[in-house]
């Protein structure tokens, strides 16, 4: 039941590959503007529809000492100003039902984190804002069971939603991606593949998560070949100094080359489907 809708100037589910990208967390207003401008230049040059992402609060950090971000009100204001200045649609995480209406003032897409994909009140509150909703499939959830999350969203009358694959728990401190999940979930809604969290090694680096970013190109190429609607990437200009998820982020300098490859694969995969 793949459906099409618009998020700003991005047509989700239209058959054209789109990108969601940005730093994991708002480190500063200057930094998110720098990242948004840099990524927008790349995507504009390649003709890739683009949604900027950054979190105002990383509420699920492994350690209580980890950086979380500027918080709901300040973060929402930063995102609103960024959207107005760049014209980009914006995505951010929400963690509590009471945050949804406020976050919706600054974001075009409200994202349900993977750990919270079964939290009914949060899903309903996000859906009722009328904003588009991205639900990340939990590491502990079978792809076919996302039909229950979809059902919850549909009760709000909001049909502007998509689902994101970010890997499944594979023993301790490890994830694995089952590419079969992509066409399974695409029967429910448009599907995005998260190429950076899928290479994460959760909580494996002494109180923070580690990662294997060298596998980002491998997995994203496979996902595009499998027919996803969009790609999600956490991108940073200096991953070693990132305040959250730097270990699994894509270095900005690699983004242009990766997108060129993904576009070529998408074109080939789409041509094959059309021929059939």
TrEMBL record:
Main location: cytoplasm
Enzyme class: transferase
GO biological process: keto-3-deoxy-D-manno-octulosonic acid biosynthetic process
Alphabetic keyword roster: Cytoplasm, Lipopolysaccharide biosynthesis, Transferase
Organism (species): Alloacidobacterium dinghuense
Domain DAHP synthetase I/KDSA: 9-262
InterPro entries per UniProt: Aldolase_TIM, DAHP1/KDSA, KDO8P_synthase
Superkingdom of origin: Bacteria
Stored NCBIfam families: KDO8P_synth, PRK05198.1
Protein family (similarity comment): Belongs to the KdsA family.
GO CC term (a single one): cytoplasm
GO MF terms held by the record: 3-deoxy-8-phosphooctulonate synthase activity
Identification of the protein by name: 2-dehydro-3-deoxyphosphooctonate aldolase
Catalytic activity: D-arabinose 5-phosphate + phosphoenolpyruvate + H2O = 3-deoxy-alpha-D-manno-2-octulosonate-8-phosphate + phosphate
């Amino acid at each position: 039941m793949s459906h099409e809708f618009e998020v700003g100037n991005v047509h989700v589910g239209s058959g054209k590959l789109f990108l969601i990208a940005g730093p994991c967390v708002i480190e500063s207003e200057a930094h998110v503007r720098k990242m948004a401008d840099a990524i927008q230049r790349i995507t504009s040059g390649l003709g890739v529809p683009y949604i900027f992402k950054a979190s105002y609060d990383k509420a699920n950090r492994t350690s209580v000492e980890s950086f979380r971000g500027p918080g709901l009100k300040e973060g929402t204001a930063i995102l609103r100003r960024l959207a107005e200045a760049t014209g980009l649609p914006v995505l951010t995480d929400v963690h509590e039902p009471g945050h949804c209406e406020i976050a919706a003032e600054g974001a075009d897409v409200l994202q349900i984190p993977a750990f919270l994909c079964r939290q009914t009140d949060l899903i309903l509150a996000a859906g009722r804002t009328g904003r588009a909703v991205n639900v990340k499939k939990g590491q502990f959830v079978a792809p076919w069971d996302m039909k229950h999350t979809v059902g919850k969203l549909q009760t709000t009358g909001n049909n502007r939603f998509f689902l994101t694959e970010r890997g499944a728990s594979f023993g301790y401190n490890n994830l694995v991606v089952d590419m079969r999940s992509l066409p399974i979930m695409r029967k429910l809604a448009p599907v995005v593949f998260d190429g950076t969290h899928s290479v994460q090694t959760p909580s494996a680096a002494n109180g923070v998560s580690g990662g294997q970013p060298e596998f980002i190109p491998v997995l994203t190429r496979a996902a595009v070949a499998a027919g996803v609607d969009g790609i999600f990437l956490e991108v940073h200009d200096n991953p070693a100094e990132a305040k959250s998820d730097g270990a699994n982020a894509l270095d900005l300098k690699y983004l242009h080359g990766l997108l060129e490859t993904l576009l070529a694969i998408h074109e080939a995969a789409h041509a094959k489907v059309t021929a059939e």
